[in-house]
Every structure is written in C-alpha cells, then in structure tokens.
Design brief:
This protein has about 300 residues and is an alpha+beta fold. The protein has five helices and seven strands. Strands 1-2-3-7-6-5-4 form a seven-stranded antiparallel sheet. β2 and β3 form a beta hairpin. The radius of gyration is 28 Å and the shape is globular.
Length: about 300
C-alpha cells in the first residue's frame, strides 16, 4: 500500500556537497581601493547601499509571503487520504487501512464561503452535498440502493439503520419537525465482509444541528437510538484524538462485544448545517483502523 500524504506537505530537500576541482589559476585580485586617511569616527555606509539592502530584504519577505499564500490557496479545498502518523500506532504497511482515492472537495459557487467560514452565519454547505459523501475505497462493492433517486435518499430508508420501531418513529418525527432538507448517502462492502454506510443529513442552518445534539442525540455513555444489529453500544474511548478534524464535532461509538450477527461501530459528525452518520459492521468484529480512517476522511470532506 502506498504511503498516504496530506496535500500541501513540503518534501524534504537535501543538497549533496560536491566539492569542485581546484582552480587552475589563482583568482584575480579585487581592484585596489584608494587609500583613505583613517578617521576617529566609524565609517558611514553610503545611503544607496543601505537602501539596496533594505529593498532586498523587503523583496525576500514579500516573496516568502506570496509563496505561503499560494500554498494556502492551493490546499484550501484539496485533501488526500489521512497521514499514517495521524493515528497513533499506524506505522506499518499492514496496518489495515483501506486505499481510498485522492479526495478533492467540489468547487464552491462563485462568492460563496465555506461552511465553517466566519462570514457563513448559517453554516451552510454551498457545495453539492452529494459530492461531499466519501467515495468507496479500492476493492469495494458499492450498494446501489443507498444512492437513492438522483443521489437523494428517502428518510425512511435512512431510518432503517435503527433497531427499534418506536425509535424510528420518534427520530423521523424529530427530523421532520427540524425541517430536514435532504439526505445524501453511500454504502459499500469490502472483501473481508465489512459493510460501510454513510449518511449526510442537511438542515437549514447549523443552529438546527446544534439543537439535535443538545437534545440528547449523542450522550457520552451510549447513543440515544440503538442501531440495527448492535446490542450494547458504548463511547469509543480509543478513537485517536490526533485524528480530530478542526471544527468538526465527532461522537464515536463501538458495540461492546460481538454477540449479534455483526459487530457494529458508528459515529455522528456535525459540520455547519449537516449531521453525518458513519456506520461500519462486520461479522466477528468490525476493525478499528478502517473505521477511524473512514470517519476522519468524511470529516475532512465536510470541514
């Protein structure tokens, strides 16, 4: 598996020392300056030379600022797969990561701010939400049912993730009363049997999403609504803090044991006007590393 990098990270540059052959002839001497009578006062540098030095310094700093600005602009809306060092302990080729394609955020409409920009008071994702769903990794078999109609999934299909009928009804009413706009989703199955489902739920403003969180959707002890196939689900205390995406709130859970048909991991993410649910399940045990990787990459796309 190829090493994964974050776009914009500079490569290390080394310059080998290649001493050249000694010159055949001694260098020409510098022109001899006319002698000047020593003075008690220190010599004063000509203003023209000092001005040139100041000008060169200003130009150097201006060039440096321009380079950093260019790099910042080129990486502002581009990301790749998570660096191996972003998750502690992932130092070998056989760490269990999946090979995702290089990720690039869709372009924003002209003049539109990003969802986390200070000027974007509503926290709106102006980019097409369907383009913000994490793509499937290499070797995955996609689930066409989760693509919905023209990329939008019906709410009742999303609610099938929850185990209890009364939970589905209650959460469905909550989503309707909070004016859920639409759901974009994607799902796939890996060769080892791990199934992934990702849902992005978009509302009118970030304040609506904050209300859902504050009303108890994601307690630290266990989630408010139990997922299908999961028995006892607890907070995932092992999720690496170094993999946290700035300004994207993350609420990860893991099933305590794997007594059911499948072992389930899931996480809620919030970014602006969007609430995301990432679910992974696998018979015999859903592995931690690909789950952490998937959640982190989805968070990067939403940031």
């Amino acid at each position: 598996m190829s090493e994964q990098r974050i776009l914009g990270e500079p490569d290390a540059v080394t310059t080998p020392d290649h001493p050249g052959p000694p010159p055949a002839d001694p260098p020409l001497p510098h022109p001899v300056e006319p002698s000047v009578e020593p003075s008690a006062d220190p010599p004063v540098e000509p203003p023209a030379r000092k001005d040139r030095r100041v000008l060169r310094a200003v130009l150097r700093w201006t060039a440096a600022v321009a380079v950093f600005a260019a790099v910042g602009a080129s990486t502002a809306y581009g990301i790749t797969r998570m660096e191996r060092t972003d998750v502690p302990g992932l130092a070998t080729e056989s760490d269990g990561r999946w090979e995702y394609p290089t990720l690039t955020k869709p372009p924003l409409p002209s003049g539109s701010p990003g969802p986390l920009a200070e000027s974007n008071k509503a926290g709106a994702h102006h980019a097409d939400l369907r383009e913000l769903v994490l793509p499937a990794p290499d070797g995955a078999e996609e689930d066409p049912a989760l693509r919905g109609t023209r990329g939008w999934l019906k709410t009742d299909l999303f609610l099938k993730e929850y185990a209890e009928e009364e939970d589905r009804e209650e959460f469905g009413d909550t989503l309707a009363s909070h004016a859920l706009r639409h759901i974009a989703a994607r799902g796939w199955t890996m060769p080892d049997g791990t199934r992934t489902r990702i849902y992005l739920l978009q509302f009118n403003t970030a304040a609506v999403v904050d209300t859902l969180i504050e009303d108890g959707l994601v307690p630290v002890s266990s989630p408010k609504y139990r997922l299908r196939g999961a028995e006892v689900t607890l907070w995932d205390e092992d999720f690496p803090t170094r993999a946290q995406v700035d300004e994207v709130r993350r609420f990860p859970y893991v099933e305590n044991g794997a007594d059911g048909a499948e072992h389930v991991r899931h996480a809620y993410l919030t970014s602006g006007d969007t609430l995301a649910l990432v679910v992974q399940s696998r018979k015999g045990g859903a592995k931690a590393v690909p789950f952490w990787q998937t959640v982190t990459l989805q968070g990067q796309l939403l940031a």
